[in-house]
Amino acid sequence: MFELVIKSIIVGALAGAGIAGGAARMFHAPEVQGMGAFRTLGEMNACSGDPVSHFTFGLGLLFSSAASVVGTGSLSSDVLHRIVPNWSAAVVISKTKKKDSAQNPFFMLMAGAIVGAIVVTFLNTLASSIPSGMAEIAEQVVTPAAKFILMPVLPVAFWLAALDAGKWQGILATIFGGLAQYIMGNATPGCILGILAGQSVEDSGFNSKGSKAFIIFISIMFLAIAYFRGKINI
Amino acid sequence: MMQSSVINENVNKKDDFKIRANNFLMTEKAFIILMMLACAGVFAGTHIFLKFHTGSFSTTSVTVMLSGALESGDYAALIGFAGGFLIARILEGPLVGILDIGGSIMTGVGTGLPALFLSLGYKTVLDNFILSLIVGAGIGLTIAIIILVVRKIMPSGYNTMGTDVMMGAGNIVGKWFGPIIIIMALKYNFAAGMGAVIGAAICHKKDKPIIGGAVLGAMFLGAIYMYV
């Protein structure tokens, strides 16, 4: 138990510091390379610098993360995607009393290290003390739901978004998505690359240097992955 | 008089340090450091998962896949999926200005690369905590450099490419999660299902995403039913 606590504090502080510092940089993207997700940026904007909103949003997700860690051993992506950025924002905003403190990477990095260490240690030790009945419910409810999201909801959502976005996005997402489904077992990466490549074709034409380079790069990457996964034999 | 000027100087020094630290953390060099911190933590998190079966930073579904692969010893599907995701995110990150840490760090560094190391027989990398921190930091360094290089060679005007489309798809997925939790809870048993329904309804009334309420409700009523 002692070993688990010490390791959890180290791991949580490192990951929390990096992610919270990167999240603050998101507010200055694309000029500065940020880390997080568009989802995270949108949610942090939705809390609009109110420390209570940031905190309660994170708290709700702490419970579902606890269910996930009990059921599967996964802290769930919510810990780094949502709890750490939002709780760090809550800490720095209430400490500095300035709404835009969450955009300050130094403050966020310090807060993130503390929040990360506490949250990860709490979840890792809570898991072993929660009754097995609760763990079973989490495993029977949350795990199949997460599997269902990964396949087919995730690829379909990106596929539909690509079809709605335009002709080229739809065509390329369909081609790369279909190939990714066969090669990687999930169409999502192909659909995302299809959207990006399609957008590039739409913006600058099929014969532009950028579009061609991008599509050739994706094709080579797919061939390499297919080869290493034994889907094609040369 | 003398004393107050000393205090002022100290206050100024403190503020000065904060401003300088802040300016430094906005530079490209700092991106490398942030990536090394995050990847070291996440990669060593997988060490904790292998040892204690808790604390994986990867998404729930990907962690389930890792557990399955550990049992069967067949990592091929996992490496293909998580590796593909990692490469896609590293490409996309510099293009849109925000690196998606879900696909890149949590899934790629937390599961894909560990699966690759395990399948190649480099189990020590994950067995030793200190070594896992060092290897994780090295992975972060490598990914950060690739991203910064892509940013340098990227044709200008690509910055907003596809961003709206991706955000839309991300939102759709987030919305699906709540109802699916309720369906799975009802498939499990009536008590957990009703708990999920009530929890979700309360959250919706309060303008909160229903997933939190659905999970909490299912756990709460399901546990009461189980123990009574």
Question: What fraction strand of chain A?
Answer: under 5%
Beta strands of chain B, count: 1
Shape of chain B: globular
Got a strand count of chain A?
1
Report on this model:
The complex is a heterodimer of chains A (234) and B (228). Chain A has helices at 2-26, 38-46, 51-72, 78-96, 105-129, 132-165, 167-184, 188-204, 209-228; one strand spanning 34-36. With 234 residues, chain A is mostly helical. The mean pLDDT of chain A is 85. In chain B, 84% of the residues lie in helices and 1% in strands. At the A-B interface, helix 1, strand 1, helix 2, helix 3 and helix 4 of A face helix 1, helix 2, helix 3, helix 4 and strand 1 of B.
Descriptive keywords:
heterodimer, A: 234 residues, mainly alpha, 9 helices, 81% helix, globular, B: 228 residues, 10 helices
Question: Would you summarize the structure shown here?
Answer:
The complex is a heterodimer of chains A (234) and B (228). With 234 residues, chain A is mostly helical.
Layout of secondary structure:
The complex is a heterodimer of chains A (234) and B (228).
Chain A: H1 2-26, E1 34-36, H2 38-46, H3 51-72, H4 78-96, H5 105-129, H6 132-165, H7 167-184, H8 188-204, H9 209-228
Chain B: H1 2-25, H2 28-52, H3 60-72, H4 76-96, E1 98-100, H5 102-120, H6 124-127, H7 129-153, H8 163-188, H9 190-205, H10 210-227
Helix pairs in contact in B: 2-5, 2-7, 4-5, 4-7, 8-9, 8-10, 9-10
